[in-house]
Amino acid sequence: MVVYADVVFLLNLCIDFLLLWLMTAIRRQRPSLLRIFCAATLGAGYAVFQLWQPLTFSYTFYGKLLFSMLMVWIAVGFHSTVAYLRSLGTFYLISFVTGGGMFALHYFLGSGVHAGGGSIFSLSSGWGSPISWVFVLAAFPIVWLYARISFRSLADRQMVNNHLAKVRVEWGEVKLEFMGLIDTGNQLRDPITRTPVILVDVEEWGRVLPVGLVDAVRKGNWDGLGKEMPGEWMTRIRLVPFRGAASDGDILVALKPDKLEVFQQGKWRETGKVLVGLDTGRLSSDGTYQAILHPSCMSVAG
């Protein structure tokens, strides 16, 4: 069997470069492309070294560990032990996910399962077995792109989760508990009292709010609001002018709760004065949170 060392070197150079680049993207690091290229060159050289049988150390666990640690060190440097180990762990995770994805894709496309004589057996066909270089060239970009999108989605989700907090609101006998997003860009306040306003999805609260109030908020018609509302709810209503990113100006219906609490550091903490604004739009497309919190509520609660 003829193996071309230059082909092995170039293929591993491209794969190692993309893996290291994805590692730095996930870790939100910005090393130079030259450093990543030098690290990938070391990895490609290691793959070529394995073609020579006398270099048995490269086949051992310690040899693989040493070369991978050197690659990560060259790519991102050593700023602290914790940061370096996190980068190394991320590199291993990406390598395992990508390699496992290519292995699964190979057998998904090239294997057939057959039953006969009381036995079940598989036949590899099409792409060949073991995995061919042609398959690696075709499948690696697909698996790498999928891994990149998936890891980015997980990172974005984690970033959102870091800004979520449970919220509990009380109106007399009515108690509601929901998830809120801490938004430092929410600076909405009552222009007269300067009371901060949080935004909630009115659709989530339709079952506990008066029907007349929900209809008025949906239609934006306040003319007959006083006639259809119970007296105890009229004392809670505030009309707050606001300007959105896509509107010149509008009126937001806000309610004054008896109590609003935010779950922080393992316990419920009561905020100061706050208004609950009823928003007609869907605040979260996937339902992760049902309210947008004012940052001053968190500082008071903490």
Automatic annotation (TrEMBL):
<dbReference type="InterPro" id="IPR005081">
    <property type="entry name" value="SpoIIGA"/>
</dbReference>
<dbReference type="Pfam" id="PF03419">
    <property type="entry name" value="Peptidase_U4"/>
</dbReference>
<keyword id="KW-0378">Hydrolase</keyword>
<keyword id="KW-1003">Cell membrane</keyword>
<dbReference type="GO" id="GO:0005886">
    <property type="term" value="C:plasma membrane"/>
</dbReference>
<keyword id="KW-0812">Transmembrane</keyword>
<feature type="transmembrane region" description="Helical">
    <location>
        <begin position="6"/>
        <end position="26"/>
    </location>
</feature>
<keyword id="KW-0064">Aspartyl protease</keyword>
<feature type="transmembrane region" description="Helical">
    <location>
        <begin position="65"/>
        <end position="84"/>
    </location>
</feature>
<keyword id="KW-0645">Protease</keyword>
<feature type="transmembrane region" description="Helical">
    <location>
        <begin position="91"/>
        <end position="110"/>
    </location>
</feature>
<keyword id="KW-1133">Transmembrane helix</keyword>
<comment type="subunit">
    <text>Self-associates. Interacts with SigE. Interacts with SpoIIR.</text>
</comment>
<comment type="similarity">
    <text>Belongs to the peptidase U4 family.</text>
</comment>
<dbReference type="GO" id="GO:0006508">
    <property type="term" value="P:proteolysis"/>
</dbReference>
<protein>
    <recommendedName>
        <fullName>Sporulation sigma-E factor-processing peptidase</fullName>
        <ecNumber>3.4.23.-</ecNumber>
    </recommendedName>
</protein>
<dbReference type="GO" id="GO:0030435">
    <property type="term" value="P:sporulation resulting in formation of a cellular spore"/>
</dbReference>
<keyword id="KW-0749">Sporulation</keyword>
<dbReference type="GO" id="GO:0004190">
    <property type="term" value="F:aspartic-type endopeptidase activity"/>
</dbReference>
<comment type="function">
    <text>Probable aspartic protease that is responsible for the proteolytic cleavage of the RNA polymerase sigma E factor (SigE/spoIIGB) to yield the active peptide in the mother cell during sporulation. Responds to a signal from the forespore that is triggered by the extracellular signal protein SpoIIR.</text>
</comment>
<feature type="transmembrane region" description="Helical">
    <location>
        <begin position="130"/>
        <end position="149"/>
    </location>
</feature>
<feature type="active site">
    <location>
        <position position="183"/>
    </location>
</feature>
<dbReference type="GO" id="GO:0030436">
    <property type="term" value="P:asexual sporulation"/>
</dbReference>
<feature type="transmembrane region" description="Helical">
    <location>
        <begin position="33"/>
        <end position="53"/>
    </location>
</feature>
<keyword id="KW-0472">Membrane</keyword>
